[in-house]
């Protein structure tokens, strides 16, 4: 390859696929050969404390699959490990870069990183183009008629659907023949990145239509295989959201509503980035959390004495996944039964969940604690035993994650009736003080 010939760059981030990748297909239409790149960003990786991280392993395998696909087309994927700004400086020095393409990411850290790259490119008179890819509608596209963002889900979802009816879904095909031709066999190992091999096995996502058709009937029962586990694929873009929405429209309205919840929380984070640190409803930051570290440790370990709570935490600790119904229960238990700040639970989930997504995790934790937009009212306190009766009557899920001894001999760390009264009184006191 002649490094004096002009090229375009496509930068993969949270869009690790070729099919229906908006930015990639646009870059490949734009005349010049395209060099695809991926950066294992040291700024992100250095924040992960545990070297056994399934998400890093997942990305590592997904990037390997991408690289192999490009190699079949006579090209490859250049993979870097380092700080994106420094890597772009090197790329600009090495190639005659005309334009850099990427798909937009809306998280506060990503926006900051992208702004630094934009400044560097503009300084060097290099053009750049970013695209909407990871959502159907981004930040400002679904607003109330007065131009303000929605903070309640139902009207947001109604408007979102109307807009989708009007605009429809667009799919994008990549012209791989326009990739830059080059050879690059080398691929960095997980160990070189500072991580270990985990039990995560990446494979291209397949949407199971039968499962989706049953979704509304089975999704609430943790012992059933009723939800898709597509979250990690949506997080890292190994599946297209447009493909998911098409399937949802054709097969199950409840599943579609869940995909809209994802975008609802993303637009909340976009319009109210303060929620990363603060309660959406600020008055809830007046609550005097008990924040007992020993009680938090019991919750983390799944040793609360409430079998459904404990089974959920053990599922999370051993697999990186937890069923949604149980996520709601353990979050309510932490914030209301134990009166531990929702931010502690949010951070624990962030460290463990394979499908961890800042907007959804934050939004759902604030929902459970009562302090979020459109949240569960503070006096709605799940009774863990009733939840078990309703959703795991035969204790199938519980038996999967708890041994007989843990199930039968550990007594509840706090009595439900007492915890409920204490939570209501504490919330009331905090909210009254905030007035
Ligand atoms: C305390 C708490 C924390 C959570 N943290 C996360 C998180 O970090 N990342 C995450 O993707 N989801 C999170 N959720 C939402 C939900 O639990 C998961 O999306 C879902 O369990 C993932 O399973 P699935 O992939 O089988 O999804 P399915 O049930 O098959 O749903 C399909 C997709 O819809 C989206 N979705 C479903 N439910 C929700 C929801 N309530 N809010 C936002 N999006 C939703 C997800 O992208 C999900 O993958 C959290 C929920 C709670 C109560």
From TrEMBL:
Cofactor(s), by name: FAD; (6R)-5,10-methylene-5,6,7,8-tetrahydrofolate
EC number: 4.1.99.3
Family indicated by similarity: Belongs to the DNA photolyase family.
Protein's UniProt name: Deoxyribodipyrimidine photo-lyase
Signal peptide: none
ATP-binding found in the keyword field: no
Residue ranges the record marks as coiled coil: none
InterPro entries for this protein: Crypto/Photolyase_FAD-like_sf (IPR036134), Crypto/Photolyase_N_sf (IPR036155), Cryptochr/Photolyase_FAD-bd (IPR005101), Cryptochrome/DNA_photolyase_1 (IPR002081), DNA_photolyase_1_CS_C (IPR018394), DNA_photolyase_N (IPR006050), Rossmann-like_a/b/a_fold (IPR014729)
Keyword tags: Chromophore, FAD, Flavoprotein, Lyase
Domain Photolyase/cryptochrome alpha/beta, first and last residues per copy: 6-136
């Amino acid at each position: 390859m002649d490094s004096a010939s002009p090229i375009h760059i496509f930068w993969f981030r949270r869009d690790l696929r070729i099919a229906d990748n908006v930015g990639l297909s646009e870059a490949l239409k734009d005349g010049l050969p395209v060099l695809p790149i991926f950066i294992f960003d040291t700024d992100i990786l250095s924040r992960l404390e545990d070297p056994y991280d399934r998400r890093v392993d997942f990305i590592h395998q997904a990037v390997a699959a991408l690289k192999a696909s490009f190699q079949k087309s006579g090209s490859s994927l250049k993979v870097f490990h380092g700080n994106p700004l420094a890597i772009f400086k090197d790329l600009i020095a090495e190639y005659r870069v005309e334009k850099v393409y990427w798909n937009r990411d809306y998280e506060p850290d990503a926006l900051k990183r992208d702004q630094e790259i934009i400044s560097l490119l503009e300084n060097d008179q290099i053009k750049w183009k970013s695209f909407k890819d990871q959502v159907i509608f981004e930040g400002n596209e679904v607003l109330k008629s007065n131009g303000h963002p929605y903070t309640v889900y139902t009207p947001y979802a109604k408007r979102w659907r109307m807009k989708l009816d009007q605009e429809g879904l667009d799919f994008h095909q990549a012209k791989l023949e326009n990739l830059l031709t080059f050879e690059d066999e080398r691929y960095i190992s997980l160990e070189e990145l500072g991580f270990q091999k985990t039990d995560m096995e990446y494979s291209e996502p397949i949407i199971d239509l039968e499962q989706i058709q049953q979704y509304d009937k089975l999704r609430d029962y943790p012992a059933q295989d009723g939800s898709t586990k597509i979250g990690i694929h949506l997080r890292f873009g190994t599946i297209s959201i447009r493909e998911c929405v098409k399937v949802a429209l054709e097969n199950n309205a409840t599943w579609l509503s869940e995909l809209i919840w994802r975008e609802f929380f993303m637009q909340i984070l976009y319009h109210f980035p303060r929620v990363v640190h603060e309660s959406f409803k600020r008055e809830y930051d007046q609550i005097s959390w008990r924040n007992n570290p020993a009680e938090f440790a019991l919750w983390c370990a799944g040793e609360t004495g409430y079998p459904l709570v404990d089974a959920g935490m053990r599922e999370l600790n051993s697999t990186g996944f937890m069923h949604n119904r149980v996520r709601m229960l353990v979050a309510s238990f932490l914030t209301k039964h134990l009166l531990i700040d929702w931010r502690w639970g949010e951070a624990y989930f962030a460290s463990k969940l394979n499908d961890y997504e800042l907007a959804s995790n934050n939004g759902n934790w604030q929902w459970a604690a009562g302090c979020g937009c459109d949240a569960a009212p503070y006096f709605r306190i799940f009774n863990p035993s009733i939840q078990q009766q309703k959703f795991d009557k035969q204790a199938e899920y519980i038996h999967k994650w708890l041994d007989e001894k843990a199930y039968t001999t550990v007594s509840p760390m706090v009595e439900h009736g007492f915890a409920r009264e204490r939570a209501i009184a504490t919330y009331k006191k905090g909210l009254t003080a905030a007035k």
